[in-house]
Design a protein that fits this description.
heterodimer; A: 115 residues; mainly beta; 7-stranded mixed sheet; 0% helix; globular; B: 109 residues; 5-stranded antiparallel sheet; 11 strands
Chain lengths: 115, 109
């Protein structure tokens, strides 16, 4: 299985809601990533988990809270978001925990709209 | 200077032509590079990786890495309308993967 899955595909939420994005991979990869992508821009790295531990947090606001329950799952908990947080949220995984030389594989993304 | 820079395009080529996409990088970027293709509204899809100086070919795609000149390129031969997409160059910097801004390619019939 060479796939990264993400749920939901689309999410619309109000600024007072709490929601979660989910990501799963069964490739035995030990590094997992969250990216945010705005229209016509490249993906921006948010978080990196290496061996289920948070290794990189790119100064992301605390209204985004990542969680890695096990080596196959990655969640992103959302609370009190702003309309400018509307974007495509991408999950990726790779073999190399240092996030270095090994390719990353992306899931299909969750299209988030904050009203 | 951005760590990974792409000629932003957009690039338009006729069907059957060779499309050439280029990326330059700073000294701080380690020399593992990846090319991703992203269709509108979809996620990035890995199409080529290159780790050593020289050329690497896979079907209609050839990646080229020139360490002396600090650039990496992607050639698409016999371009097809289905190749129309945004192409993202990605390199590693201090253990983090860094994207270029992307090049929009349009292949017209």
């Amino acid at each position: 299985d060479t796939e990264v899955t993400q749920t939901p595909k689309h999410l619309v939420m109000g600024m007072t809601n709490k929601k979660s994005l989910k990501c799963e991979q069964h490739m035995g990869h030990r590094a997992m990533y969250w990216y945010k992508q705005k229209a016509k821009k490249p993906p921006e790295l948010m978080f990196v988990y290496s061996y289920e531990k948070l290794s990189i947090n790119e100064s992301v606001p605390s209204r985004f809270s990542p969680e890695c329950p096990n080596s196959s799952l990655l969640n992103l908990h959302l609370h009190a978001l702003q309309p400018e947080d509307s974007a495509l949220y991408l999950c990726a995984s790779s073999q190399d925990p240092s996030g270095g030389a090994v390719e990353q594989f992306f899931g299909p993304g969750t299209r988030l709209t904050v009203l | 200077q951005k760590e990974v820079e792409q000629n932003s395009g957009p690039l338009s080529v006729p069907e059957g032509a060779i499309a050439s996409l280029n990326c330059t990088y700073s000294d701080r970027v380690s020399q593992s590079f990846f090319w991703y293709r992203q269709y509108s509204g979809k996620s990035p899809e890995l199409i080529m990786s290159i780790y050593s100086n020289g050329d690497k070919e896979d079907g209609r795609f050839t990646a080229q890495l020139n360490k002396a000149s600090q650039y990496v390129s992607l050639l698409i031969r016999d371009s097809q309308p289905s190749d129309s997409a945004t192409y993202l160059c990605m390199g590693t910097s201090y253990g983090k993967l860094t994207f270029g801004q992307g090049t929009i390619l349009t292949v017209h019939p």
